[in-house]
């Protein structure tokens, strides 16, 4: 190091570091731009509706009372599925959803923290006591999917899952009250 | 000096003892959840084991290692006695008491809430109180690090604090900020609930407070690896540190950006809106900057070493590096794992993309690769580097050290690549057993077995690591020729006050934290959410 290589002069080192730092800045800016772009144009956002509900009473009345659970088609044709996540099961244990139509999934819990995903889809949310978790999605393929609880909720956590039946348009038939249940197979 | 060496060794042996136990448990867990272990263990035993594994790796290995390493750096880099040595021993024993208080309820199945707690589930109050004692012990360490640096600065007015100590104090200050979140959650919410003083808990608030700690704690674990990158690796390779200033800047950036990013762990949570989530995703993107700067500076430093050793051409210097030295080998392997893990991390922080992988094996793979891989392999390298200096003994052969590092690297890569793959297919986390009869799950079986075999490789590496250190204790006395800390190409004569202390940066951290966590925490007071009933598992 007695004879300093030209690359090793202090100003040269500073210049190189700053050039690299500029490159890092461009990389970070590009990544963030993509996130902003997809959020604004394709509505790719995390589930964040911040809707409060009392976990101690949600099963007694209102939308998470037993007779309102499962999939309902409203008069305007919109499809909503309501599920209660509780130690250690989903109620109902099987939900029927239409293929190729927008579905609103709404979850809540009377007890502890749960979470869920539906395999092979982008459905993924935490279910936190005190809140309604809401996800919008469209199931592109018909068939049975798994909906496991993916957050530790107690010793029985591993046994907690539900089935999602994605039904083709012809098989997705609401009854007189607009309810759709899983097909018996 | 003797007493400081005993202090360091005491911390390190507690850390690595916990590490070995946790490695055994981790391997057992992988057996249980693979098709091979379908009939092994109960869910109760499995979650007890997961809790113990997380506590031992995440809280005991890290905290004790970092404290021991800090004392070592304070004495060697500053070349002055450690102030408050009695306090250091007091903190050590208090932390030991804390570990015991935590371990007993875990081992009796009264604290199977995993190391991330999940209130309204609550375990035995002793579990949490023990952890608080460990944290308070680490706070004493933080104060001692700050005091040691201040004393040195008084004696050496105007001179730049040696980079190793500057970085250690950056980590200590970051840790003080980091622990505020979890301390508030435990002291005001979880421990009163566990003691039976309160019957309900605001879960959204608890998750938010924990997220304050949850990401920065990983940088607390990570910084010793970065200290070794900057201050030990260039010397071990036979070169110089490319830029001391970039080192200081990197550790300052870590102090600022590690903290206000924890909410990216809550991207899938319903208690926060998109605005606050997006702000923290923005800040999370910035935290990649210090790592990318480090990769460049350390690669440049290694290039200097390679060229000094006769390496030629664009890549010839890489082959010329002394890969037979454990520190150099570990840095190379660590960078490879950091590359894969960092790429995965971009998906995790990717706001919308996070929905593909949240709470799947992908996330487990990510933090095992980053922490268990690139960080822990540097813990090994640091231990190998400083153990001869603590014991005055020398290795008779470096071959078992290199073998151990390679085994760890291979084990980590082979374990985590299938986990990433299975995570993308929707394999979810934290399950004691899978129903391999299910057609969706059946195809995962072979990959779970592959990762279990890799777990056995990791266990072999962990055993070899402890064996290597034990053998050194029995080896003959040997003098150490090579100095430990690297010189910069241009060792700084004077540095601006902002690069020689943390007063300014603490103000900045406060401002950024108010921006990032002010409203998200205040909202629970402005519009209280309905609280949940406490579920005691005792």
Q: Which series of helices and strands of chain A comes N to C?
A: HEEEEEEEEEEEE
Order of adjacent strands in the largest pleated sheet of chain B: 1-4
Shape field of chain A: elongated
* Proportion of strand residues of chain A: 25-35%
Helical content of chain B stands at over 70%
- Unreliable stretches of chain B (pLDDT < 50, length at least 5) are none
Oligomerization category of the chains in this entry: heterodimer
Radius of gyration of chain A: 24 Å
- Tell me the name of the CATH homologous superfamily of the largest domain in chain A: Cupredoxins -  blue copper proteins
Number of domains of chain A: 2
Number of strands of chain A: 12
Structural overview:
- The complex is a heterodimer of chains A (about 180) and B (about 550).
- Chain A has one helix spanning about 10-40; strands at about 50, 70-75, 80-85, 90, 95-100, 100-110, 115, 125, 130-140, 145-150, 160-165, 180.
- Chain A has about 180 residues and is an alpha+beta fold.
- In chain A, strands 1, 2, 3, 4, 6, 9 and 12 form a 7-stranded mixed sheet that branches.
- In chain A, strand 2 and strand 3 (about 80-85) form a beta hairpin.
- The model of chain A has no long low-confidence stretch (mean pLDDT about 95).
- By secondary structure, chain B is mainly α.
- In chain B, about 70% of the residues lie in helices and about 0% in strands.
- Chain B is built from 19 helices and 4 strands.
- Chain B has helices spanning about 1-30, 45-80, 85-105, 125-155, 165-195, 205-215, 215-230, 235, 245-255, 275-285, 290-310, 315-320, 325-350, 355, 360-390, 400-425, 440, 445-475, 505-525; strands at about 120, 200, 530-535, 535.
- In chain B, the strands form 2 sheets. Chain B has a two-stranded parallel ribbon with strand order 1-4. A two-stranded antiparallel sheet of chain B has the order 2-3.
- Classes of the chains: A alpha+beta (about 180), B mainly alpha (about 550).
- At the A-B interface, helix 1, strand 1, strand 8, strand 9 and strand 10 of A face helix 2, helix 6, helix 10, helix 11 and helix 14 of B.
